[in-house]
Amino acid sequence: MIQRVRPLFGTFISIEAEADSAARALAAIDGAFAAIEKVGALLHPASGTDLGRLRAALIGEPVEVEPWTYEILSICRQLEVDSGGVFDPCLPERPGRMRDIELGGSAQIRKRADAALDLGGIAKGFAVDRAIEALRGLGCGSGLVNAGGDVRRFGPTRREVLLRLPSGRMLSHALADEAVAISEPKSERSPPEHRGFYRGDTREAVVGRWVAVTAPTATLADGLSKCAMLCAPEVAAALLVRHGARALFDGPPR
């Protein structure tokens, strides 16, 4: 197993890969980092090219976006519907909500109201999935991507990961061919672009609580960890079941 670490997405990202040769594993790791960098170039809240073009577009003007952007917006739309509007990546200072982002065919989108998207609540998980996809596509038999609280692995055996609780205690979890994501209240450890949490339906600022969610993909684990943090318990429980996910630990508000 070969490992490399780089600073990206406001954190350190660790990628491990195992292949039939060290050269193949290293090439796959480079491809995985390139995929993560592409996601950042498209979706960064301040400098992302696709989000910037949508933000600058006129109401009703069609905007062609990359397939990855269309894919993550489709997932956001589904989570927004499933959570009753609680999960919404549109910033509260503009009137448009996720339901005002029209997803047409052929990766074309348009906004029906003035909206500004911030995919910080799910983009890191999406980047992890694209990295895993790259590792698999470049011939790795197993691998792991750890992006500061968003972890996904694949391979024939389970892998123990340690999750740091707010108390400082470590929670051990045996990660199979799946992902885990952690969400917690904003703190001094948060990236500078992290604005804090709010409910999409009411735009109310929420302190939140520590929560970890396992799911089939890191995108779902990342997004569902926000839903588990923000939704009423019965809504969160139904969401997790619907998407084949589960909460590992749910800490009290602080």
Give the overall silhouette: globular
Distance between the termini: 39 Å
Poorly predicted regions are: none
Instruction: Give me the secondary-structure category.
Output: alpha+beta
Give helix % range: 25-40%
CA gyration radius, whole angstroms: 18 Å
Largest sheet: 7 strands, antiparallel
Number of strands: 14
> Count of DSSP helices?
6
Let me know the average pLDDT: 89
> What proportion of the residues form beta strands (DSSP E)?
25-35%
Strand order of the largest sheet: 1-2-6-7-10-13-14
Write the H/E string, N to C.
EEHHEHEEHEEEEEEEEHHE
Which helices and strands, and how do they pair?
Elements: E1 2-8, E2 11-18, H1 22-43, H2 49-56, E3 63-64, H3 67-82, E4 101-103, E5 108-111, H4 123-137, E6 142-147, E7 150-154, E8 159-164, E9 170-175, E10 179-183, E11 197-198, E12 205-206, E13 211-215, H5 218-230, H6 233-242, E14 246-250
Antiparallel strand pairs: 1-2, 2-6, 3-5, 4-5, 6-7, 7-10, 8-9, 10-13, 11-12, 13-14
Helix pairs in contact: 1-4, 3-5, 4-5, 5-6
